[in-house]
Fold these 2 entries.
Entry 1:
Amino acid sequence: MNGPWHSYVYAVGRDGGDLDAAAAALTGFGGAPLRTVAGDGLTALVSSVPADDFGTDGLTERMADLAELEALARVHHEVVEAAHARTTVLPMRLATVYLDDARVRAVLSERAAEFSELLSWLDGHAELGVKVYADPVRARAEAAPAAPTAGSGRAYLRQRRDQRRLRDDAYRAAGAVAGAVRDTVAPLTRGVVAHRPQQGELASGPGENVANEAYLVPRTRVREFHQALAGLTGSDAGVRVEITGPWAPYSFATRPAESGAA
Amino acid sequence: MSDPLTGPGGAASPMRTSPAPSPYGRPGAGPGSSANLADILERVLDKGVVIAGDIQINLLDIELLTIKLRLLVASVDKAKEMGIDWWEHDPSLSSRARTPATRPVPAGEDQPAVEGEAGREAGWEQHRREEENR
């Protein structure tokens, strides 16, 4: 039988009080207080969640609804971000739920060596996202009248060919910028993870996302990272570069291949 | 450290008194509240440490969720590669999926209808032409 409350884990860090301070300053789902659960030199940031809503059925139902999922994701993210602002943390994936704190402690013990190594690797680093967009519509608007005029099929086809050429140019330019981004930031980063390009209803802004990467950057070099890319943002009409973060090191919480210089 | 049973599980917990409809959101801006939802979802759902929790969400449901999200935040092309195309029959998604300027297509002559994305694009153009010639 499950109790009426489960333990939801947001992030794991080291012992030492930073997460205790974060817990005291924050609330979790439903405004519930946060607390820390310690074991084997590690500390988990936890809040109690109602078993009815955070059991298998409750979570499945909630996560299938985009509005509910957004609410879950934002609270989870806010707690992780606030903890990350104070200390090095491993963000947990959304919906990491245990029956009680004793189970959380047991997992900390089981994974202590791995988590400690990861925390050492991530120490003093943050994640920055870089998305490169091709914007052929904008490139096209600058080069030719937008709406196809009614006319012969041949004229229409010629127009379509021209549009496709412009589109291809925009994608080529975006690909070149994406490559330049990687080369430019390589000396400033400890690792890189490629996310899937964003496409669909939640993708933001004009154009199509052709590259979506996360970089692990020393916190002291975040400004330098931005400055290094300043020359690449907006250099081409058909290309847009968007930098996000600094994030907690979500994309590096499972250790990827290293890249760049230390 | 704290004991879960003496934690916030008391009768006065805000959990039980939170107003509907979505008690898990929070009023007021937090540090990450301005971040783009797609950026957050790809991180909290696709990244982060995966440890086996006690609460397991049904695998099939996770898969469905993942597919839905990939269509929302990630690549339609990838879904096509996986042989998934149900959004073509979903009116709320198909208009997006058919937006012509969303992916590169090799320059060249108009093609007859073929399999996949190129076929859909060709079909879309066919449709456009028929409309225009009307």
Entry 2:
Amino acid sequence: MMRRLLQITVTILTFLAFTNAAAACGTGTYQPQLPEQLRDK
Amino acid sequence: MKKFNVDNLIESILNYFKKHLEIEEDQEAILRYSMQVSISFIANMAMALLVALILGIFPNVLFIMLTISILRSFSGGGHSKTMFGCSIYGTIIMNILGMITKYTYPTKDVLSVLILLTFMFSVWSLHKYAPADTPGKPITTKVKRKKLKTLSFLSLFIWCTICVLWYTGLTNNFMLIYTSTLGILWQSFSLTDWGYALLHHMDRALKTINRTEEETTL
């Protein structure tokens, strides 16, 4: 059960990262360094 | 006592994930980024809305923040160097705008003129600066730049349509129109060189306060 919950959390976080990467910037005024894995090639 | 640090918290969560799941190096970087963005968003919203709740301007600030967030995701804008700076900046600005909408009562004509001026300024600002990127997240492809610019204009036109509906009397939510107008105006301003300069000065001021605090503790 715990493992399943963690998997769901990781999926949601990955989805959020990709959504944020597709946008111009985050909704707040803090923008951390975008990792290489999410940069446009 | 150990000082609370967001990076340490993120590392602890990542270690917990790695202990129970198989996480590759690439995925770890993505998760770290996602947590930085999510924590920053939650802290920013929570701080601004908590102050708004105390000041009795919760719905005003909420509407302003939502308007800014929608336009900002497409148009970009100035950024603070630290998560703390972002929260402080967001809290101060959002609550000042919230107070303005709470304690000023423009007539329909005055608000209509404000909407028109905001629309004209936003068109100029979006045309000239959007999408405004940052060194931390550069927008490198032409296709993406064009797409984000189009989406920025689309969200501005949707807002404008809602304002026209309000003017013609089809909707009657004065507060929603007033707060969203200030939100659009502020977001358009934050795209400009002055907007970037303001954030830069705020960052410098916070850095000075932080340094003075550290010196006092020593």
